[in-house]
Amino acid sequence: MSTALFDGVRTASTVSADGTTIAYHALGQGPGLVIVGGVLWDGSDYLPLARALADDYQVHIMERRARPGSGPQREHHGIDDECADLVAIAAATGAKSVFGHSFGGLVALETARRHNTIAEVFVYDPGIPLRGQFGTGWFDGYGRLLDQGDRRGAFAWMTKHSGFAPGPARRLPLWYLRLVLRGVIRGEAWYRMDRLLESNLVEHRLQAALDAPDPSRFSHITARTVLLGGAKSPAALSRALLPELAHAIPGSTVALLKGLGHFAPRDQPARLAVAILEERSSGRAPR
Fold it and tell me: Mean pLDDT in the chain?
């Protein structure tokens, strides 16, 4: 495992069960916590949250497959691979706690239900497709535009048709939405997102393949589980989902955070960190 140091952050890597290299970035002090991120984000998006938690945890930001420093997604990439990668990071670092955002929340909960080595789970707006709430009708058009080399068009297509964008954005003609998004997301932000457009489709297809899991799927989780959501986030990721998960997961707690949206780990990290630490101090310690 090679390491390097930059800006107070130690970068290292480990090897997952199938031999794929998985990178991670470590900072802080205290018990170990692994951050597992969402689609179209890489580890750098979670550095603000990691810094806000670094006085209380030794934080390990996981670079999921297709992200910088980690290996590619293999053919037939699935949730088993995602869970194995998290287990590998936890084993390499000794971390017993996990924070998962969006798709990373799905990975965190799936890993916790399979492996009792995870003692504490925090998820924020977990990407769990209960009862088909996540639409799949945008997949073909998105993939077709990617194949044609129209990467900006593919992103606009997903934004318009996936169901998570605000209503006004969904009502815009595709050509106009494409121009708006080009003006809003550009430079380094677009570069980091652009290189993940293919993995984005793979990961959404992975979610769809779970076939709208019943919340009871997670009823065997023994880790202390805190379910966080943003009051400004899409309802399918927070208000409609979290109570059902809480009913299924023994001893879990729910907190809907006022004023926070789906991008809070990057845009409002201090407020999210406070919520995590308050929930941590109010509950039992990890095993």
Answer: 92
Query: 71: which DSSP letter?
Result: P
Q: Is the pTM of this model over 0.85?
A: yes
What CATH number does the domain located at 4-131+212-282 have? Answer: 3.40.50.1820
**Encoded tokens for 115:** 């492996």
- The residue behind tokens 């407020």 is 271
120-124 vs 224-230, strand pairing mode: parallel
Cα–Cα nearest to 36, from 165, 155, 257, 203 = 203
Residue with tokens 């699935």: 78
Name residues whose C-beta falls within 8 Å of residue 40's C-beta, 6 or more positions apart in sequence: 193, 196, 197, 200
Sorted by where each begins, the domain ranges of the chain are 4-131+212-282, 139-207
Chain-centre distance of CA 82, in angstroms? 11
For 223-257, how does the pLDDT look when each residue is reduced to its tens digit (9 = 90+)?
Answer: 999 999 999 998 888 888 999 999 999 999 999 99
Q: Are 97 and 33 in contact (CB under 8 A)?
A: yes
For the chain, first and last CA: distance in Å? 27
C-beta separation of 38 from 127 below 8 A = yes
Q: Cα–chain-centroid distance for residue 117? A: 20
N residues, the chain: 287
Please give the helix or strand (H or E) that residue 205 lies within, else none: helix 197-209
Tokens matching residue 223? 């880790």
Q: Pick the closest to residue 27 from 14, 46, 42 (CA basis).
A: 46
Number of H helices and E strands in the chain, helices first, is 12, 9
